[in-house]
Amino acid sequence: MMDYDVIVIGGGHAGCEAAAAAARAGAQTLLATHRKDTIGEMSCNPAIGGLGKGHLVREVDALDGLMGRVIDEAGIQFRMLNRSKGPAVRGPRAQADRGLYREKMQSLLRDYPNLDIAELAVEDLIVAGGDVSRETSGKDMVAGIITADGTEIRASAVVLTTGTFLKGMIHIGDRRIPAGRANSRGADKSWGGVEPPAIGLSDRLYRLGLRMGRLKTGTPARLDGRTIDWDALEMQPADAEPVPFSFLTEKIRVPQIACGVTATTAATHKIIDDNIGKSAVYGGAISGRGPRYCPSIEDKVVRFAERDSHQIFLEPEGLPGTQGDGAGFHTVYPNGISTSLPEDVQAEFLKTIPGLERAKVIRYGYAIEYDYVDPRSLTHTLEVKALPGLFLAGQINGTTGYEEAAAQGLMAGANAARLAGGCDPFILDRSEAYIGVLIDDLVTHGVTEPYRMFTSRAEYRLTLRADNADQRLTPRGIAAGLVGTQRATVFHVKQSALQKARDWAQAMTLTPNEAAKHGLKINQDGRRRTIIDLLALPNVRLSDLAAIWPELQEMAPAVSEQLEFDALYSGYLHRQEADIIAFKKDESLRLPADLSYEAIKGLSNEVRSKLMAARPATLGQAGRIEGVTPAALALLLAWVKKAKAS
Are 19 and 105 in contact (CB under 8 A)? Predict the structure, then answer.
């Protein structure tokens, strides 16, 4: 085979975004995957987005990534979570037709410029001496991949996106099945249909001396929807007006469905409690920690013993007639009861759940344990410090979720391409994006359990809203060569319309007396107020002002909504801008990669060891390391300034 600029290993959500980003950046890219027909597979729950996660998808989309466009073409139940709360914490979410999502992702990648896709089993990496031109002379660096048949394919950078495949082990009761995941196609109670784990790559990472560990995640049984008593259940419909994820999507055209809502019972909990020792987790077979915010049903029963029920959402995995692989509409994902209990125990407790008394199981639930790399081994570009040219993205870095994987994949792919092309890194900081928060949290703090994004993790969430992701990031993406012509054109048209609307809204004013004539109650202080001023008031809505200025009704919804959201937060944003300026000051002070912390007098041994382990890139990152005190930062700042002056 030919040589490449960038090779991406793995066709999951991280791999798809990494390959597309590298190719968009102009790198000749190879996506290597075991099977082309599993590219874009939704291995666990058939949904994209949610609180915090939805922000990541919007940011990936703003940088011309794929996930937002694909879910807009495959989403069968769109819902805006936290709709009653402020825009900063609203979370777009969409349940997907699993087959349609996979099909749309594969369709986008099939003819992607600069991208080849090949079915390859990658067993190892080519490691060679450093290149003087890349300032790695004398240091080993990645130089390509070695396949199972011994074929060597050279590349300037490699992105590893192995998901749960690194020495993956499926656990169900006392059974152990070496696998990266179960085959998602159709019924398989025999566990013969599994995808093999990645052993050689895991061994290579251990040989590099990287800090590694084991994590676990789980999935529930899949049920035959034709055997569920839907009439006995509460049904949750989709939003009447679905809100797309992608800034390129004008309207959702996929038919929308409702999902069922049920709950476990006291009888369910007794069965689980009586058999808790048979769980792979509680039986001691699994050492890796699972995601705290997505616990198994065993965890819920043990940790919340005072509760006698836990909610379950019954989510159809597709629309009728859209999948020909035996899944689709008749397969239902019972969200909320992932488990590693034996099949017979699962069958027993499922019958105690309202609506599932006669439900047939298509595939039983299981837990999966896998290797991960301590993300503190990475730079902010997601490059491995110990092996330049190797980038990691997704669950291999200790995260959980499609959205976190996609965000990392995009950034790793972009930076792999920029490294191959001799360009400066592309880095987003905490004040710019949830992507920046995600990566900074990982490389600064590491993980002790699978990391999941929440809005509460972002200090500047009033600025980092899902609705303004394109305004924040698309210009950055254009400058970095990550944004194509279509998106750039759409963005510039929207920005022009938005600026025109803002200028007009600032020019339109009312006195308090004039406002009172229109039924608006504002302070009678004689001060004229602009449309923006009025929208900032808690009791004034855009619809109220549209009765006074009909032009507001004629604006594109994306433009008028942006006016309303900007006005709502206008008073707070000025204060947050001051915080961001202070943050940028610390972030702008770069710390030398070879800084000798042993030589800085006054640092405690604990702080010194933490700084030496993390090797923070900036003073700001150093300050976010647990245990690094303000006094230690002052010593560090003085030392760096003295070194620069000498």
Answer: no
DSSP label at residue 483: S
DSSP codes, 584-644:
HHHHTSBPPTT--GGGSTT--HHHHHHHHHH--SBHHHHHTSTT--HHHHHHHHHHHHHHH
- Please report how the helices 53-62 and 67-74 are oriented relative to each other, as an axis angle in degrees rounded to 10: 110
Q: Where are the beta strands (DSSP E) in 186-228?
A: 194-195, 212-219, 222-224
Local confidence band at 185 (pLDDT 50, 70, 90 cut-offs)? low
Average pLDDT over every residue of 617-639: 86
Q: Which two tokens stand for residue 2?
A: 């030919």
pLDDT at residue 86, as a whole number: 81
Query: Across the strands, what pairs with 94?
Result: 48, 78
Q: Per-residue b/e over 551-587, b at no fewer than 16 CB within 10 Å?
A: ebeebeeebbebbbbbbbbeeeeeebeeebeebeebb
Distance CA 413, CA 381 (A): 9
SS3 376: helix
pLDDT digits (tens, 9 = 90+) for 8-40: 999 999 999 999 999 999 999 999 999 999 999
Strand ranges for 436-515 from DSSP E = 509-510
The Cβ-side half-sphere exposure at 188, using a 13 Å CA radius, reads 16
| Among 170, 177, 175, CA closest to 217 | 170
Distance CA 422, CA 27 (A): 11
* Model confidence pLDDT, tens digit, residues 292-313: 777 899 999 998 999 999 999 9
- Confirm if 260 and 234 have CB atoms less than 8 A apart: yes
Rounded to the nearest integer, the mean pLDDT of the chain is: 91
d(CA 410, CA 56): 11
CA 68, CA 90: separation in Å to the nearest integer? 16
Whether the CB-CB separation of 113 and 32 falls below 8 Å is answered with no
| C-alpha span between 341 and 189 (Å, rounded) | 14
CB-based burial, 383-407: b 16+ in 10 Å, e otherwise = bbeebbbbbbbbbbbbbbbbbbbbb
Region 155-173: mean pLDDT is 95
